[in-house]
Amino acid sequence: MDVQDLIDEVIAREGGYSDHPADRGGATNMGITQAVARDNGYFGAMQALPRATAEALYRRLYWEQPGYAFVAELSWPVAAELFDTAVNMGPPTATGFLQRALNALNRNQKDYPDIKVDRLLGGRTLAVLRAFRALRGPSGDIVLLKAMEALQGERYIALAESRPANEAFLYGWLANRIGSGARS
Asked: Where is the Peptidoglycan binding domain positioned along the sequence (predicted)?
């Protein structure tokens, strides 16, 4: 599996054009909001957003810019989960979930030091992920993913609780987003 496979999965899951009245993101196509499209140079009708444009935006904004390819060198499943969460919640939130989970899994800094939850993927976060994997091995990915997905699920429920209109999306978020990152 590679990043193109992740992009293809997200586009298939997101579907085509939508402009749901309860969605604060407004008009979207293939999961790309009009605001993201406009901020990145696409000014045509959202219904006509080219697939190639959506793919390029996913690759650049949710894989390359946040640095998830560096995570993929250490753990493909964790990188895939970061990408998938970033698409829906933004790279800072996805990266913050990774940092929080790594801190919570270090047994009060007995295994490796805490890192600052700055929501940016940098050398320290990668070093801690490397230390976690050296200690726990590839099977540790399963536990790390569960921790990240628990944080993601909690965020979805909080969004629904804070804005009742979001309840229209909660079932789909939980059904289609939790555990949807690639596991191979």
From this structure: 96-177
